[in-house]
Structures are given as structure tokens and as C-alpha cells.
Automatic annotation (TrEMBL):
Residues 137-323 form the Mur ligase central domain. It comes from Roseiflexus castenholzii (strain DSM 13941 / HLO8). Residues 349-469 form the Mur ligase C-terminal domain. The gene is murF. This is UDP-N-acetylmuramoyl-tripeptide--D-alanyl-D-alanine ligase. GO terms for cellular component: cytoplasm. The lineage of its organism: Bacteria, Bacillati, Chloroflexota, Chloroflexia, Chloroflexales.
């Protein structure tokens, strides 16, 4: 709960913060949560009217009000043009003006110069009221998976808050921080990157003591300009860690390994290199039955079999185990967490039409994750079909990257369906690599891909579906599922 007497000082700039005594009628007013999507508004929430690239949250204030929002953070310059059907009062958090007219039944519009900046200040203020161990997670690929598995492990021993979905941006990470309570011992937070300085900004709000960096790859290369710029941006997390913290780094990625040189925290390496603090060998992927490997730590070896899909999930498990070990967990609890339902990855095997199995890896795509998904498909015993969509934001390497995926698809799949304009490079390269032309299809959109697949699928087929988030390829999964949601 966010009490009104916390929100009003919290949204102000720290140097000029003023605290006003609330009228007795408002002393118990509190907000259940903060939301930035009016569709998520509830009768007790605080709606934050953010201005995005395409829409302005003020346009949805009436919807939030109709859903019963108790209050809202609004831009001061917009107040005069607001019209709501519910009674409301505009409150200036600096002067306190409007408090005397407010009642528990009126909608409280808290007027600020910039709702995004005010939300950031409030999140930092709220974070400062508690003392959890915060774990920040970043990387070009695997942030969300690592967050889910790490939280699944830590939940075995600690009361844990984690980012929902991919709440990892300047707009959404503050929403997670506002969910912190005195009950939480650990917070596992994903930190994304839109441009230079964003991870540093998120780390300043969250104040992590542990930071996990999974890898550095060409995701967002179009926006960032170079792989070196991406490396520098990801380095902002280990740079933000305190001296008594730990930078948990993937030793197998040279660009991540080098981040040990820029952090004040103690580096803790994980990976497949025996030089790591925690490393694995004897990896055996068992397709949809999971993966087994031997893990080594402080001279001891332990054999694990986990319900995680693909060889690449070993790195995810090692990162999560690293966090558990550094927080004092015993292996028994760590293994139980790795095997728990809460630690399962986004990549899912779901029943498809015509007695097929769909490998749903539609959350996002990069050259590395495409290769990993195809490697998993290669391990399955049956006819293998790959439905692959565009990979976005790859800049100057986009043709090369798509063709690389096409070459691997030709080695793995018996049928390839490429979706989107860039994916035509995948189809073209697959044919050049030897996949017969009558087994390669190129279509423009998801509906065409689903329609085509419905006519091709046969009992026993395994179907990998993967593309960038902006391709919305989960719509293909929904059309091919045996029992549609």
C-alpha cells in the first residue's frame, strides 16, 4: 500500500521536499498499487499518466477514473483541460493546495511538472524505506528467463519480490519498486536498455547489491550503433554495484567477462569455463525432458537433472544458482528452486492441432536465441518444422544475421515457414544451404503462416515458433494450439 502521506513528499524533488500535515479525513487514504495502463486500474490504485512515443496517458485518465482509480499523477499543464465524470480535487504536493477540499471519496489528482520524473522520485523514496537485497539482471538475451529462474530459486529461502512480465524500463521498473514492503527480503529486478545511461538510471533507483549480466549481443544494434556501445550500456549495472556487492558475470562471453574491470563489487564468474567460480560440464540436453549437467563449486561436483529446455538453459541455471550461493543458500534449496514450477522458462512446449507439439518461444528473438532454439529443435525425434519471423533492430548486420539463421534452419528443419520481409533472407539462405524449395515457404504475416501450417502439420510433428516481440508471433501459437485459450 502507498499511503497518501508517502506519495505527496515522495513525488517532490529531494532538495526542496516539503511535508504537509494531512487533514484528519485523509490520514488513512492509501493506494493499493501504481499503474500506467488504465486497463489495469482498480478502485484503490494510483494511475500515472505518462506521455509515451505514441500516446499520452492523460487521454486515458477518464477510463482510469471510470474504473475507480483513487488518484492519479498528472502533468500540471494538463490540469485545466481535464474533464472527468467523477468528483475530483487537484492537489499540489509542493504547496499543499487542494488538500483542504479533498475527501476520501474524491479522486485525487496530484499535479506535477513531469509524471515520469515524479514516478521515479516516488519509487526511489519508497525504495529507501526498506532494506531488501536487490538483484539487478541485464543482458542482450535471457534477462527475463534469468529473472524468473533466479526468483524461483531465491523464493525457496527468502520472501522475494520479482519484476512481473518484462517490467524493466524507466516507465515500468518504478512500478515494481512501489510493490516493495517490509516483508520482502529480496527483490529480483530485470533492467532493460533503450539507450546509454538507462541502466545506470534504473540502478540508481533500485540500488542493487548483486548484478547479473548474461551476455552482450547485437540486439538493439540499429539503435545503439555498435556492439561496443551495447557493452558499455550493459556495463552500467556492474559499475553501479557497491563494494560489498557481487557482479555475477558470464565468463564465456568475453565482453561480459571484461566487466570485472569496471566494478567496485567482487566479480563472481559462472559458465562452462573451469576458471569460473561456478561452472558446468557433461551437459546432456534431453529435448523436452529437460537437461542434465555436472556443476562444480569450490572443488565439489554435483550432477543435476532439471526441467529446463535446451543446452542454453544451463547458463540460466548457473546464474540463478550463483545468486543463491552468494546469499548463503544450501544446494538442496537451490536445486529445489531450479526444479520448481516458478523457475520454468518462457519457452514452452504446448499441444498443437493434429497431435503435434508446439515449441512456443515467441517472446523475442536475436541471432543467439534463434540458434539456441533451433539447437533444441534439432534434438527432437520427429518431423521438425520451424516458423521463424523477423529479428528487429539488428542494424547493419540484419541480412547477415538472418542468413546465418537460415543456414542453421536448413540443417535442422524439414519444413521452414519464414514470416516477414526480413525473414525472406532466412528462407533464401535455407534454400541455398540445401533445404528443398518445396519445403521452404515465405509469407508476409502471421495469419498466412498459421493458415499454411494448419494444412501442413501431421501427427508427431514438432513446430518451433519464434520471432521478435514486434512480430507478435504468439498469435500463430494461439491459432495452432489444440485447445485455444
Amino acid at each position: 500500500m502507498l499511503r497518501l502521506d508517502e506519495v505527496l513528499p515522495g513525488v517532490q524533488e529531494e532538495v526542496n521536499r516539503r511535508i504537509h500535515a494531512l487533514p484528519p479525513a485523509l490520514m488513512q487514504v492509501a493506494f493499493s498499487e501504481a499503474v500506467i495502463d488504465s486497463r489495469l486500474a482498480t478502485s484503490e490504485c494510483l494511475f500515472v499518466a505518462l506521455r509515451g512515443e505514441r500516446v499520452d496517458g492523460h487521454e486515458f485518465l477518464a477510463d482510469a477514473a471510470a474504473r475507480g482509480a483513487r488518484g492519479a499523477l498528472v502533468r500540471r499543464s494538463k490540469v485545466s483541460s481535464l474533464t472527468l465524470e467523477r468528483p475530483y480535487v487537484v492537489i499540489d504536493p509542493v504547496t499543499g493546495e487542494g488538500l483542504e477540499r479533498a475527501t476520501p471519496d474524491t479522486m485525487l489528482l496530484i499535479a506535477v511538472d513531469d509524471p515520469q520524473a515524479a514516478l521515479n522520485r516516488l519509487a526511489a523514496y519508497h525504495r529507501g524505506m526498506y532494506n531488501p537485497v536487490v538483484i539487478g539482471i541485464t543482458g542482450s538475451v535471457g534477462k527475463t528467463s534469468t529473472k524468473e529462474v533466479t526468483a524461483g530459486v531465491l523464493q525457496r529461502s527468502f520472501r522475494t519480490l520479482k519484476s512481473p512480465r518484462s517490467y524493466n524500463s524507466e516507465a515500468t521498473l518504478p512500478i515494481v519498486l512501489l510493490k516493495l514492503t517490509a516483508d520482502h527480503q529480496v527483490a529480483v529486478l530485470e533492467m532493460g536498455m533503450y539507450g546509454p545511461g538507462e541502466i545506470a538510471h534504473l540502478a540508481a533507483l533500485a540500488r542493487p547489491r548483486l548484478g547479473i549480466v548474461t551476455n552482450v549481443g547485437p540486439s538493439h544494434l540499429e539503435r545503439m550503433g555498435s556492439i561496443e556501445a551495447i557493452q558499455r550500456a550493459k556495463s552500467e549495472l556492474p559499475q553501479a554495484l557497491p563494494e560489498d556487492g557481487f557482479a555475477i558475470l558470464n565468463i564465456d562471453d568475453p565482453r561480459v567477462r571484461a566487466m570485472a574491470e569496471v566494478t567496485r563489487a567482487r566479480p563472481f564468474f559462472y559458465g562452462l569455463d573451469p576458471a569460473a567460480d561456478l561452472w558446468a560440464d557433461a551437459i546432456e540436453s534431453r529435448g523436452l525432458q529437460g537437461v542434465s549437467f555436472r556443476v562444480h563449486y569450490q572443488g565439489d561436483g554435483l550432477h543435476l537433472t532439471l526441467p529446463l529446455l535446451g543446452r542454453h538453459s544451463v547458463h540460466t541455471a548457473l546464474a540463478a544458482a550463483s545468486a543463491g550461493l552468494l546469499l548463503g543458500m544450501e544446494w538442496e534449496a537451490i536445486i529445489a528452486g531450479l526444479r520448481s514450477e516458478g523457475a520454468q522458462l518462457r519457452l514452452l512446449a504446448v499441444p498443437g492441432i493434429n497431435q503435434t507439439t508446439l515449441i512456443d518461444d515467441t517472446y523475442n528473438a536475436s541471432p543467439a536465441s534463434m540458434q539456441a532454439a533451433l539447437n533444441l529443435l534439432a534434438e527432437l525425434d520427429g518431423r521438425r518444422i520451424a516458423i521463424l519471423g523477423d529479428m528487429l533492430e539488428l542494424g547493419s548486420i540484419e541480412e547477415e544475421a538472418h542468413r546465418m539463421v537460415g543456414a542453421r534452419a536448413a540443417e535442422v528443419a524439414q519444413i521452414l515457414i519464414a514470416v516477414g520481409q526480413r525473414a525472406r533472407w532466412i528462407a533464401n539462405e535455407a534454400q541455398q544451404a540445401g533445404l528443398p524449395a518445396d519445403q521452404v515457404y515465405a509469407v508476409d504475416d502471421n495469419d498466412a503462416a498459421a493458415h499454411l501450417a494448419r494444412n501442413l502439420l501431421a501427427p508427431g510433428d514438432f513446430v518451433l515458433i519464434k520471432g521478435s516481440r514486434g512480430m507478435f508471433m504468439e498469435t500463430i501459437v494461439s491459432q495452432l494450439q489444440a485447445h485455444r485459450p
